[in-house]
What does this fold into?
Amino acid sequence: MDKRGLSLIGLFIGIFWFVFITIFLGLAVFGFSFVNDVFDQDLEVGQVNLRDVNNDSFGKINDALVTSADTIGITLLLGMSVMMILNGFYFGRNTQVVWVVIDIFILVFIFITAVYLSQIYDLFINSSVLFQDVYVDIIPLSSRFVLNLPMIVSTLGSLIMILTYFQTRSREEELINVRGL
It folds into this structure.
């Protein structure tokens, strides 16, 4: 099977997932906080106070989400980055060094796309004060990851290319030494 370009194409798909995961995580935090604020009213429903019930049940879930949202987001983003590096390392076994020029063009295209997505994310965050509170105050590391996406993509892509072609060279030298040619 010809696997040329798969290592960097995974990075192209990954940048969309980076932005999607961060936006979805921020919207989940925003939605949970909004519902928690609605339920957090001093209102008697029958013989039960709605605020007390909310603080004992949904309020604890919301507090856990708000305090761990940034950790969840950065763990997912860094985990995807490590998986892309490993993917490039293992898919690069059959890649010829001639394809490095094409991979550089793919990396430039991915960089341009990352700049575009980073700017869209910046506009999304600054479109509302409510979004700015969530994305800047609650999940700052995940937001910084997406805002610095062009730098991360170029570093990650270069690392994937180095690992892909380094693996190819060492594998070819290993085969030459085994055959004795």
